[in-house]
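Quick start: read one record
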Amino acid sequence: MEYNTQQRRLPLPEYGRSVQNMVDHALTIEDREQRQICANTIIKIMKGMFPQFKDNADLNQKLWDHLAIMSDFKLDIDYPVEIVKKESLHVKPDMVPYPQSKLKYRHYGRFVQDLIKVASDYEEGEEKKQLINLIANQMKKDYQNWNKDGVDNQRIIDDLCELSDGKIKITVDDVKFFEQRTFTQRRRQANNNQQKRKQ
């Protein structure tokens, strides 16, 4: 018995060895018209393997590209779309530039610290108070994800003041902190609710 690991490596293993065998067979067909019919049939089979993507506009392009790749670009047929070039498959994409600025408190993340800058320059009023309230609650949630022992509300207020460069000056009484429950507490509550529904 021959194991798959002993056979040649598939270029696109997601289609399986059976589809690869069909592609290999299509390469041996000498009559161009019959080869085209065979290729169309293979595409139909490949399309049937992923029904969840049947409404995807790019699916047709992708399948013909994959057929070309599986045949090592040797299948001489009339492709209904312009297929990917073999050379472009081995080109490395450009490096994604990542922001180099360092975060003062990494556990809050960049998004929260950007929000604090926005809130700092916000016009005084009810909207600013609500925004600061939401930011403080998000900071508390982020801090608890990082430190499971909990956090003192005053610590959040101090960090908020520091991250805003002193522009946001509030006290613990100015912020209405929501009840922060741990994952275990939320899970326990969900189980209790489920038990009540069963009774």
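DSSP finds seven helices and no strands in the chain.
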